[in-house]
């Protein structure tokens, strides 16, 4: 066997080992958290209640004054839930990307450079985050929103698989945004303030219809920081029948493009990384 054929085989074996390691880390993380089941359950319930309270305040206002820009309380609940599920998927499997700043500040990224796998593949399995509270919150709001819209005949059961597709593509988009934001840390080191804008503030804004905002801001949330692709754009078709069925291939293509651009930016950032020397 020539050296040229041995290299792909080594890479394939390394990737298989990575996948096994990742699954092992997931099982280990779940077991460790289940050692303190009461604390885990109580923390999850409290997290769900705290986040539910934010939507309940909006729902109370809408119940009092009616729809916002023609969007009912059920539709806004749908936007909330889809964003919650997509963010939960992203942060469950890619939470360490969001915390890259600590690796840069403390010099831990240098340790990953010595491993045989690409840095990103070595980084992501280091933490598997169970976000049961967010799952409870998203599920409660989604069931309530679907119940209201199915009862009124606004949507059919086809909206469920369409929503699952939107959540999956949305998670990819959010991961791409998070990865691109983290990559900026190779030049700035500190990225928490930037994350507040590109992730926290943008995701909060996208929980509401983009028609609430000025045109320039709505365009920004669909292009430069495309959180509107996570829930608003699919909701236009799934809930309102606007646009067309082409929304789904567009979402898939946009998610793939966003991920590709983020990975290319990450590769470029890695080439510019300078060790802390610590």
Q: What layout of secondary structure does this protein have?
A:
Elements: H1 3-34, H2 37-65, H3 73-98, H4 100-106, H5 109-113, H6 119-123, H7 132-151, H8 159-183, H9 185-188, H10 192-205, H11 215-220, H12 232-238, H13 247-271
Helix pairs in contact: 2-7, 3-7, 3-8, 8-10, 8-13
Notes on the protein architecture:
The structure is a single chain. The chain has 278 residues and is mainly alpha-helical. It has 13 helices and no strands. Helix 3 runs antiparallel to helix 7, helix 3 (73-98) runs parallel beside helix 8 and helix 8 (159-183) runs antiparallel to helix 10.
Structural class: mainly alpha
The whole-number mean of residue pLDDT values reads 83
Low-confidence runs of at least 5 consecutive residues: none
Number of domains: 1
- Count of runs of 4 or more consecutive helical residues: 13
* Distance from first to last alpha carbon: 41 Å
What share of residues is helical? over 70%
Report the portion of residues in β strands: under 5%
Number of DSSP strands?
Answer: 0
Shape: globular
SSE pattern: HHHHHHHHHHHHH
Q: Mind describing the biggest β-sheet?
A: none
Which value, in Å, is the CA radius of gyration? Answer: 21 Å
